[in-house]
């Protein structure tokens, strides 16, 4: 029967679409990268999405985040994302967590209930905790490396963390994964050397913070405020979503090869 996922089914087949519909995916971080991940997963027929982020849409998000519009400024990103998912795929089961994931909050999440975990947050301690929890639950995980201060979307690729180079965040993650005994980790990273943001205080959040009321973590408290483009985070997010869908459907794709 013709439905909204019929074009996808022409590629993956009916059995794979049933697998996607039965899958539950957790997305940690619903920003420039994570927002596009959620978008693509909803349009691919994922049956259940768990969205984790405490941030609100800011005016400065409009340059790159698919959930950011003039109408959504000030709203929680997970709420905006949930509404958008249901407008695309009304049968998708969406749950939201308005929280900033930290290691001490890991017990709030049941990783064994997920079929795939996506790490699209910025903090190293949080990323490592997500990865360790997913590994302990024997659930596949993919982690996004740095997408800020870059202009070449074609430089992104998927690799094991120990095969990465150039990316400063990937370098830190390699070191920390090695210390913690994490033997492998699938990541999306860029081979592009990041640019140094211009020091223009007239447009800097340092001196002109416009974070919406109620924002827990303001830009003025961040160690560094990266520059960004409309297309680099989007490509990273779509690459990650593609890896998730293809991994979940791997057996069906191999049958068609």
Polypeptide structure, described:
The chain has 257 residues and is an alpha/beta fold. The protein has a single domain (6-256), classed as NAD(P)-binding Rossmann-like Domain (Rossmann fold), CATH 3.40.50. It is built from 8 helices and 7 strands, in the order ααβαβαββαββαβαα. It has helices at residues 6-12, 14-21, 32-44, 77-88, 124-136, 168-179, 232-248, 250-256, and strands spanning 24-28, 48-52, 93-97, 116-119, 141-144, 156-160, 186-190. A 7-stranded mixed beta sheet has the order 3-2-1-4-5-7-6, sandwiched between helices. The radius of gyration is 18 Å and the shape is globular.
CATH class: Alpha Beta
CATH superfamily, called what?
NAD(P)-binding Rossmann-like Domain
Biggest pleated sheet: 7 strands, mixed
Please give the CATH architecture.
3-Layer(aba) Sandwich
Radius of gyration: 18 Å
How many E strands?
Answer: 7
Low-confidence stretches: none
Structural class: alpha/beta
Could you give the order of the helices and strands? HHEHEHEEHEEHEHH
What's the mean pLDDT score? 93
Q: How many domains is the backbone divided into?
A: 1
Globally, the shape reads globular
Query: What is the end-to-end distance?
Result: 25 Å
Brief description of this entry?
The chain has 257 residues and is an alpha/beta fold. The chain has helices at residues 6-12, 14-21, 32-44, 77-88, 124-136, 168-179, 232-248, 250-256, and strands at residues 24-28, 48-52, 93-97, 116-119, 141-144, 156-160, 186-190.
Element layout with pairings:
Blueprint: H1 6-12, H2 14-21, E1 24-28, H3 32-44, E2 48-52, H4 77-88, E3 93-97, E4 116-119, H5 124-136, E5 141-144, E6 156-160, H6 168-179, E7 186-190, H7 232-248, H8 250-256
Parallel strand pairs: 1-2, 1-4, 2-3, 4-5, 5-7
Antiparallel strand pairs: 6-7
